[in-house]
Amino acid sequence: MITSTTGPQPADFADVRATNLAVVLRFVREHAPCSRADIAASTGLNKATVSSLVADLIDRRLVRETGLTENRVGRPATMLVLDGSPYAAIGVEIGVDTVSAVATDLAGGRLLTWRRAFSGGDSVSQSVAGVGAIVRRVVNRMAKEERQVLGLAVAVPGLVDVQGTVRLAPNLGWHDADLGGDLAKALRDPGFPIQVDNDANLAALAEQRFGPHAGAADLVYLSGGVGVGAGIILDGRLRRGGLGYSGEIGHVQLDPEGPVCHCGRRGCLEAVAGIGAVLRKDLSPAETQAEIEEVVRQARSGDPGTLARLTSVGTGLGQGVAILTNLLDPAVVILGGYYVPLAPWVLPAVHDELGRRVVAPGAPEVVASTLGHDAAALGGAARVLDSIDSGRLPGGLARIP
Amino acid sequence: MITSTTGPQPADFADVRATNLAVVLRFVREHAPCSRADIAASTGLNKATVSSLVADLIDRRLVRETGLTENRVGRPATMLVLDGSPYAAIGVEIGVDTVSAVATDLAGGRLLTWRRAFSGGDSVSQSVAGVGAIVRRVVNRMAKEERQVLGLAVAVPGLVDVQGTVRLAPNLGWHDADLGGDLAKALRDPGFPIQVDNDANLAALAEQRFGPHAGAADLVYLSGGVGVGAGIILDGRLRRGGLGYSGEIGHVQLDPEGPVCHCGRRGCLEAVAGIGAVLRKDLSPAETQAEIEEVVRQARSGDPGTLARLTSVGTGLGQGVAILTNLLDPAVVILGGYYVPLAPWVLPAVHDELGRRVVAPGAPEVVASTLGHDAAALGGAARVLDSIDSGRLPGGLARIP
């Protein structure tokens, strides 16, 4: 008999009840309508424990009872469904010249999608004031709908440590910014948790929960913005590394003789296959968007220079995806940002490189993201919902009148 | 408030009781002697559930009761300690010319360490017969000590899929070998699970459980044998990728103009910084061992050519560790195999490269393994113990007279 591996897990003994609450909540999310007896039968928890856990979830308005069903053998049972109508999750993405905000309900349905101009080049305190104002408006809108905000997660294009400090965001000019703390102050301690994360990490969570490959256990998202970063999901969870800095694929060296990168090194993935290599010049994000559209037009018309350039970018990107594949063996790699419109011309070269470079049988599926430009903001909401699913349940509804 | 991230986990509802058994077992391992009330207080499980779980663990002779203690307020409590005296875990490593076997008790104490000559170049069936004979002798020895074998895990230098099939082991000349199934037949269905895994994966598990960095949540082991592979532990668990092929760092390209590798590609880590680059020739494993000792002597005597060669190997290895670090951000990287004796001359260049290439603040600790040549075999035993700790408990002791 061959069994699959499991290793020791951190001994988080105090979380057993929270874990079991989360198990029941996820069971109801996936199997509603269902009875307490169904939950007990499927989870191995005893009936008294299930009743206690369900009562707790009903108190928190995460689950509600619906009518009896008699469509079964024996006594009719009270059926349970997901509630969560009085809640909202908020995700915000800070870009170089825009802020995006997304709010969803507990089931992930979109309640709100905003995009606002924003000057990321301002100081951290000016930026926090601007982001804070937008978040306050989102929170007010949710309050009008009588929804309590479960949490906020903010995506930043840069290195974010496990405590949520923005250690370095070169394109925003930020370093060592306590964005979460500053936002909490700007929002005057709003009563919900604020999390800060890298944009590729949150976009990966959005793909995991909402994308066409939702549920894939081993998925990597590659952001194609001003920089290139990876959000790495392995065995169903985002893997951020010891300090929180995983996914920095943009400055992995592909060629010691390659072009000089912004970072001063040579032949980095970003220099070989980033948006700068597509456009061959540095532009503002607004100009970049227009230029990418022009590149797409040229590619569609079969312009040989453009096609050669996109093949070269695909070759570099394929080298990067091959490194990811040899090291991590993901089932799917999702290209985001500016790579999405360019995918038809970039992907063939990516696949060629995978064929050449991947050691093991079976390369991952490589696809363009379908979640659009607010993938990281949506991922912020996904991260809030992930916290709920993991047992960080809202305490009550005291803040809603 | 900033909280750490958690994502959705696979909904393994049926495993809740097994998980809770494992929670209690691990609590006893870490806190013995302890009472049922201690367990209930620390885990959040109710007392009735804890009593039922403890009774189960006592039935399985994984936990036993010791005397009462009165050294506390209120009623004296019956104290619990880890038992497991009637059990053994077996790990085996198949090398090119040796087989190593290790047996440990439930607490990881060594019961047996064997190393035997072995001709890995034989056909799979001849090899299975040879390995099977050794395992049978280990099992018989354990039976004499009245220990039931909890499981066997076998380390193979090659690609092993998640089902345990050896897809490719170039240095053994094996492909698509159902080693676990064949061994089970050779052992005539021995009544314990047989697992097969990549050697670097198992060595990483050995480091995680028994090494000086035991318990590190984010740890990478780099094997330095005939090939170079990585065992990747993130967030406390081995991450084997979607198909089981993670860690294939040996054929990540460091330099498109680099030396030709055995695999036919150019500038692979193995070609730049593998044992072949140290020795500059291909030798049998026995000869390699002698040659490495000679290289160490030369390095100790300050031979400039040898020192330059080892610095060059360290530079290449540092490039590989930098890629690992940028992508995965481990806290510690452990060099195994032939890198261990060479570490004093290789590590300085590794650290230089990390300083040059790692994007985020804070490079990982890079150290030589202290577990010796049977790290992967010891890791096999660790994998068996991991299975127990995760709730795959032995059913009973019927097989022991």
TrEMBL record, chains A, B:
Cross-referenced InterPro entries, in alphabetical order?
ATPase_NBD, HTH_MarR-typ, ROK, WH-like_DNA-bd_sf, WH_DNA-bd_sf
Q: Which residues form the HTH marR-type domain?
A: 24-65
Q: Which family does it belong to?
A: Belongs to the ROK (NagC/XylR) family.
- Superkingdom assignment: Bacteria
Q: Which Pfam families match?
A: MarR_2, ROK
What is the protein name for this chain? ROK family transcriptional regulator
